[in-house]
Fold this sequence. Notes:
Layout: H1 2-28, E1 42-45, H2 46-55, H3 57-64, E2 68-78, E3 82-85, E4 89-93, E5 105-116, E6 121-129
Parallel strand pairs: 1-2, 4-6
Antiparallel strand pairs: 2-3, 2-5, 3-4, 5-6
Amino acid sequence: MKRKKTIIVTAVLLVMISASIYFYYGVIFKEARNIASEAPDYSVTAKKLIGDYNANPKKADALYLNKTIEITGKATKETDSVIVLENTVFCLFKEKLKDKIIRNNITIKGKCIGYDELFMEVKIDQCSVK
């Protein structure tokens, strides 16, 4: 009886250790997506994107959150690695931007990471200019 208990406890511990290792290496250290090479799930204007979030944030999250999207709009603010479209869509780039594109209509592809209610901006990450 004692031997049977020892085998069961050992098996349970091995399963727990295996699950921990899988989670640690399989989930935490999963390779990041290459957004630049992905086809966009949606192509929208900056005004429509912010309009969707203002109308119904939960529905907009269901559509856009963690999806690759293309956003077209007028660049209204620019720093070294950020472009803001139509004063409402915050686009963060991995590298510093080389060309000044402020006040031009551009299309940016990136991953939507959500709506910032404090600044009333949609945040886009891993951006690239199309």
